[in-house]
Amino acid sequence: MTHVRLIVGLVLIGCALLFIYQNIGIIEIRFLAWSVAMSRSLLLFLVLLVGVAIGWLWHSLALRRAAREERLRAAAAALAPGTQPPEQARRRP
Fold this sequence. Notes:
The protein is α+β, with helices and mostly antiparallel strands and 93 residues long. It has helices spanning 2-22, 40-79, 86-91, and strands at residues 26-31, 34-39.
């Protein structure tokens, strides 16, 4: 199994290097009053990093929302007469 991972990793690195080599041309990006010249591969890498950061933030917000909703459900179950939160009901034999 480790040989498969090594081969897949080397193929991915080779594809990334080929991508960089083929997209080395300089392009100019203009946004409002700003103007930047950079290689196309660097621009695409920066866009990838921004996408990863947005996805990570979105996922962490979703986890926080789910944890908050679980705490609210547990608190509501604890306040209801004659009911127990799901965690306490599972712990009893």
